[in-house]
Amino acid sequence: MERGYNLSPCVFPTVLSCHVLYYIVSRLGRREVTHWLRLGRRKVTHWLRLGRREVTHWLRLGRREVTHWLRLGRREVTHWLRLGRREVTHWLRLGRREVTHWLRLGRREVTHWLRLGRREVTHWLRLGRREVTHWLRLGRREVTHWLRLGRNEGNREKDLGATMLTFQEIKGSRRLGYSGSRRFGY
User: Which PROSITE patterns match (predicted)?
Assistant: First the structure.
């Protein structure tokens, strides 16, 4: 136990044992514990289940992001922590709906999306996962071209010959500026 801490058992939520709380204080320090108490019993319990590593990461982001994370659940939180703070901040701006969609696609596609920015991401989400996968194979240059044409033209091109286009892209179509799968790491 660290010196200088005069903590009474009655100060803490009754759901947690004094032994656990004293352990938390001794490992994290008084500052983090105070932050936990302000958030309330529910969030504290959720934090304890995740462990010290995630808790420390949460404290750096602040209460606003923490509250948003708790609403999504542990699965998404773990996924966010692996990406880092930068991506997490970007996700929070988009909202829960887009975040859920991103998590289904995986980290690889998410990283690609973040480079394009929020405008393109929103457009992608409206088209659905199938079109998004098609876009990722083409790369950012073609994606920008699609956005300028609009969704209707994009669907029309896809309907005219999506299978042939996909085949040409994989083989390395010069017309689309695609030089093979190694260029984009696919």
Answer: PROKAR_LIPOPROTEIN (PS51257)
Q: What are phi and psi of 183, to 5 degrees?
A: -60, -40
What CA dihedral angle connects 19, 72, 38 and 25, to 10 degrees?
30
Nearest to 88 by CA among 52, 78, 19: 78
Query: Which tokens go with 38?
Result: 């302000």
Task: Report how far residue 144's alpha carbon sits from residue 116's, in angstroms, rounded to the nearest whole number.
Answer: 9
Helices (H), the chain: 18-28, 30-39, 41-50, 52-61, 63-72, 74-83, 85-94, 96-105, 107-116, 118-127, 129-138, 140-149, 151-171
* CB 143 within 8 Å of CB 122: no
Per residue in 115-124, pLDDT tens? Answer: 555 555 555 5
Q: How far apart are CA 110 and CA 115, in angstroms?
A: 9
Q: What value does the mean pLDDT take over residues 32-46?
A: 56
Residue 74, SS3? helix
Give the CB-side neighbour count of residue 13, counting CA atoms within 13 A. 15
Which pair of structure tokens corresponds to residue 172? 């390395």
Contact 126, 154 (CB under 8 A): no
Around 156, how many Cα atoms within 13 Å sit in the side-chain half-sphere?
6
Please determine, for residue 133, whether its predicted confidence score (pLDDT) is greater than 50: yes
Distance CA 153, CA 159 (A): 10
